[in-house]
Amino acid sequence: MLRRTFLTGSLTTVALGALHPAAARAEVTAVDDDFLNLLTEANRKQIPIVLGNYQNASDSVRTVARKARRLVSGYVWGRSSYHHDASLLGPLTWLIEQLAVRQHEDGLYDVGNLHSPPDSAFAIQDVCMLYALLDADGQASTAGLRTTLASVIKKAGPALAAGGVHTPNHRWEVSAALARANHLFPDRRYVARIEDWLDEGIDATPDGIYGERSSTYAAEVTNPCLLTIAWLRAKPALLEYVRRNLDVTLYLLEPNGEVDTTASRRQDQKGGREVWWYLTQFRELALHTGDGRFTTVAKSIEARGTGELGDFLAEVLERPELSANLPAATPAPADFIQHYPSQASVRIRRDDRTATIFGGTDFHDIPVISSGLSTNPTFFKLRTGSAILDSVRLSPQFFSTGHFRSDGLRRTAPNTFKLQQEVKVPYHLPLPKRYRRADGRYALTPEGRFYASMDFPHRPKQYRTLRTEVTIVELTNGFDLTFDFTGDETAYAIELCFRPGGTLTGVDPLDAPGNYQLASGTGTYKVGADQITFGPGNGPTRVPMDPGERYTYLGGNLTPDGLRVYLTGRTPGHQLLQLRTT
């Protein structure tokens, strides 16, 4: 049996056709022993950590399943120092029993959300993998564990086949879990539900960006799930969605392995993502397409060795074909301007200098702050080597309407891009007589910033207006950002947020830790030999950043973490911000 032979660690060749069940299984190539040894060692380091805290009562069922997966990977793998180590069986038994006792009678789990099909699906994918690996290993000592795991899967399957979801990626998570359950314990209901979800269509633009625009959910959920469904349900067309998304990721990559998330509609719009999550995806698509760029990224992840790479061992033991030697590497993109109109973003890279320009928030179509919407006010990022400018933001003092968020992005020349926003704030005049009520009880309606019982839509208005245009020009040694303001007179602040770890010079400290002002001349942010110079300053006036009433009403703010430098000015007018990397 190919699978069981592989688990012993003795297999030297794998059938590439196994990547896709519908493909011929004729081509054979050598196993990538360096890759297998990397995952084996990474998993070996995980196991003592699991053994030290496996009975943590605060662990979610998803964490319990992942801990069990780490132990099973070492237990069944012939090259592991934990291969068939009986000391793992007690902790593994405890973890698997937890998967059973925490399961509701309807087959679902509580994971934050109550009786949640999608959250249960995350755990069930791991449970199916646990069962498959232990079953292929075939040890009598794990027969009871397999019985328990089979019971969990059979109990969960009908609930996943009948239940609903919350977010776009949940459809693919549930479908992948059902594909795994059906592969182990076939059930027509599972197949029917997978087809229902797939029939809605995959939420991806032609350029490969999923609807949630999130590197986190592409890496952790959507891509892996589509690959699982493609493998188990013989649907090779799904691989094209993953290929296109990985192609986009090539242009979102930073030299240090971070993935840009500025345009995301999910929580990673406020943070970042590491490319290590994509390891087996890049390997699989390199093998499937022969694209050497994907090989380069996969090998760079392996070389850095960061992240929980041991988690991938279970995938490779389940599908040995992923351990095949990769096609010859070819350089990943490192000199480009890449424009993505679907999310109004631009990525620019010149070797170790990268920049992001973003004008694609959802705020102008849906003017609310909410999970699932892109509301990130960062419109520019820049890094050169280790010197990282994580965000450039702009905040006018204009009726508490908050940060500048561009209404789109235009490319006006090969190296020139324009962002723009017009904010109109009304003063409301008396209602026309035909809408007036003697009882004074008018509809509760939005004014734009707040609600009141004033029937705002029917009132004539007088507007105060502020128009902002930001022109971004790439130069050989950096960027020029030109700010043009027209309309009412007010103050504004430009915020540059540098990543902690560097040194600022030429700036003055302000009232709070991490806050500085550039009043005149230029400032410099330096990390080792890498630096970004910025300026000139535009005067010493202190203007606070105003996140807007949507945040301040709830006591929220939008202050980014890092070293924050402020440049201020007044509208109407013009200001030039020069950012230089040499």
Give an overview in words:
- The protein contains 14 helices and 23 strands.
- By secondary structure, it is α+β, with helices and mostly antiparallel strands.
- The protein has 2 domains: 2-323, Glycosyltransferase (Alpha/alpha barrel), CATH 1.50.10.100; 335-424 and 465-580, Distorted Sandwich (Beta-galactosidase, Chain A, domain 5), CATH 2.70.98.
- The strands form 5 sheets. The chain has a 15-stranded mixed beta sheet that branches.
- The longest helix is centred in the N-terminal third of the chain and has 21 residues, at 33-53.
- It is globular.
- The relative contact order is 0.08.
- Residues 1-26 form the signal peptide.
- This is Heparinase II/III-like protein.
- Keywords: Signal.
Quickly describe the structure.
This protein is an alpha+beta fold. It has 14 helices and 23 strands.
Total helical elements:
14
CATH topology of the largest domain: Glycosyltransferase
Distance between the termini: 60 Å
- Helix content class: 25-40%
- Level-2 CATH architecture of the largest domain: Alpha/alpha barrel
Major sheet characteristics: 15 strands, mixed
Low-confidence stretches: 12-28
- Helix/strand structural class: alpha+beta
Topology (SSEs and partners):
Elements: H1 2-7, E1 13-15, E2 28-30, H2 33-53, H3 61-76, H4 89-101, E3 109-111, E4 113-116, H5 117-137, H6 143-162, H7 168-184, H8 188-199, H9 215-232, H10 238-252, E5 258-259, E6 273-274, H11 279-289, H12 292-304, H13 312-318, E7 335-340, E8 345-350, E9 353-358, E10 380-384, E11 387-396, E12 409-413, E13 416-428, E14 444-446, E15 451-453, E16 461-475, E17 478-498, E18 503-505, E19 508-509, E20 515-517, E21 523-527, E22 530-535, H14 549-552, E23 563-580
Parallel strand pairs: 20-23
Antiparallel strand pairs: 1-2, 3-4, 5-6, 7-8, 8-9, 9-10, 10-11, 11-17, 12-13, 13-16, 14-15, 16-17, 17-23, 18-21, 19-20, 21-22, 22-23
Helix pairs in contact: 2-3, 3-4, 3-5, 4-6, 5-6, 5-7, 5-13, 6-7, 6-8, 7-8, 7-9, 9-10, 10-11, 11-12
